């Protein structure tokens, strides 16, 4: 949520619109009933998160849109693909809190994938 707040502030001061996405990764190899149950749960959680971000946007006056994207592939690839298709000017994303000293030195795998492959600038919020 920290990255969302940061993105909201940037959008507000630059008079930009904000598109928030949640990427839901559903493996193809799991049984169909399990896949459906997992999909429903992940979409519900994603919608809850996006609704919370939308609440922030209504307070700030930022034009807001949101989308849940489903993929069986990589999350970073889905983010980069969305950003390119939608001609996004800046991707803002967060990283999870690192627990070990080794992971504290490294960028998260999704963030690293987006930074390395996005067509536009990427701001990573820790």
Layout of strands and helices, then pairs:
Blueprint: H1 2-13, E1 18-25, H2 32-60, E2 64-71, H3 75-85, E3 91-94, H4 101-105, H5 109-117, E4 122-125
Helix pairs in contact: 1-2, 3-5
Description:
- It is a single chain.
- The protein is of the alpha/beta class and 126 residues long.
- The protein has one domain (2-125): HUPs (Rossmann fold, 3-Layer(aba) Sandwich).
- The chain contains 5 helices and 4 strands; from the N terminus they run H-E-H-E-H-E-H-H-E.
- It has helices at residues 2-13, 32-60, 75-85, 101-105, 109-117; strands at residues 18-25, 64-71, 91-94, 122-125.
- The strands form 2 sheets. The protein has a two-stranded parallel ribbon. A two-stranded parallel sheet has the order 3-4.
- The longest helix has 29 residues, at 32-60.
- It is globular.
- List low-pLDDT spans: none
Percent of residues in beta strands: 15-25%
Count of spatially separate domains: 1
Helix-strand string: HEHEHEHHE
* CATH architecture classification name: 3-Layer(aba) Sandwich
CATH class: Alpha Beta
The number of E-state strands comes to 4
CATH superfamily annotation:
HUPs
Q: What structural class should be given to the helix and strand makeup?
A: alpha/beta
Indicate the mean pLDDT: 91
- Characterize the biggest β-sheet: 2 strands, parallel
Tell me the radius of gyration: 15 Å
**Strand arrangement across the biggest beta sheet:** 1-2
Counting H and I runs of at least 4 residues, what is the number of helices?
Answer: 5
Q: How much helicity do the residues have?
A: 40-55%
User: Separation of termini?
Assistant: 11 Å
Overall 3D geometry? globular
CATH fold name? Rossmann fold
């Amino acid at each position: 949520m920290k990255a969302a707040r940061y993105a909201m502030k940037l959008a507000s001061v630059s008079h930009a619109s904000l598109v928030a996405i949640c990427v839901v990764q559903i493996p193809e190899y799991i049984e169909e009933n399990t896949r459906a149950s997992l999909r429903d749960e992940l979409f519900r959680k994603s919608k809850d998160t996006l609704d919370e971000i939308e609440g922030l946007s209504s307070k700030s006056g930022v034009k807001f849109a949101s989308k849940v994207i489903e993929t069986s592939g990589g999350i970073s690839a889905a983010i980069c693909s969305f950003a390119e298709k939608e001609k996004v000017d800046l991707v803002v994303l967060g990283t999870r809190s690192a627990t070990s000293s080794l992971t504290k030195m490294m960028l998260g795998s999704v963030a690293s994938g987006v930074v390395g492959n996005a067509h536009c600038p990427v701001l990573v919020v820790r």
